[in-house]
Amino acid sequence: MTILFKTKSIFGREVIFTSEALHHIVTRHPEMVGFETEIIKTITDPDFIVEGQHNEDISLKHYPDSPLGDKYLVVAYIENGEVLTSFFTSKPEKILQRGVKWKRS
Questions:
Q1: Residue 2: enclosing H or E segment and its boundaries?
Q2: How far apart are CA 105 and CA 84, in angstroms?
Q3: Is the pTM of this model over 0.90?
Q4: Quick count: other Cβ atoms within 10 Å of Cβ 3?
Q5: Could you tell me how far CA 71 lies from the centroid of its own chain?
Q6: What domain range is 60 assigned to?
Q7: What does the DSSP assignment read for 27-87?
Q8: Collapsing DSSP states into helix, strand and coil, what is residue 99?
């Protein structure tokens, strides 16, 4: 496992981004190639954090001018763990309905 980045969530807990996670992300979501910096920013400076279904946190950040258009970047990760997956969505409400843990004020 190669660690690409270590960062802290808004709750101050370490989150690592590995080459394996990146491979998983770009294999399932090829449009995510080149968005590593945005993935980290979505963890460290999110607009929302949502409760995941398996004890993971899901950060969302709005990117109105992304190369894919007006989208939200979604990053699922484990606090004191690692990034699980990431993708863009134009329908954040589907994810937000799971239960917002934190919202930018």
A1: none
A2: 26
A3: yes
A4: 12
A5: 13
A6: 3-98
A7: HH-GGGTT-HHHHHHHHHS-SEEEE-TTS-EEEEEEEEEETTEEEEEEEEE-TTEEEEEEE
A8: coil
Answer yes or no: is 104 within a domain: no
Residue 1 has pLDDT above 90, yes or no: no
Residue 105 lies in a domain: no
How many distinct structural domains can be found in the chain? 1
Secondary element (H or E) of residue 93: helix 92-96
Dig out the tokens for 79 from the structure. 């606090």
The reply to whether 66 falls in a domain is yes
For residue 45, give the nearest of 55, 33, 60 by alpha carbon: 60
Tell me which amino acid residue 47 is. D
Q: Rounded to 5 degrees, what are φ and ψ at 77?
A: -155, 165
| 42-97: pLDDT as tens digits | 999 999 999 999 989 999 999 999 999 999 999 999 989 999 999 999 999 999 99
The answer as to whether 103 is a domain residue is no
Q: How confident is the model at residue 103 (pLDDT cuts 50, 70, 90)?
A: very high
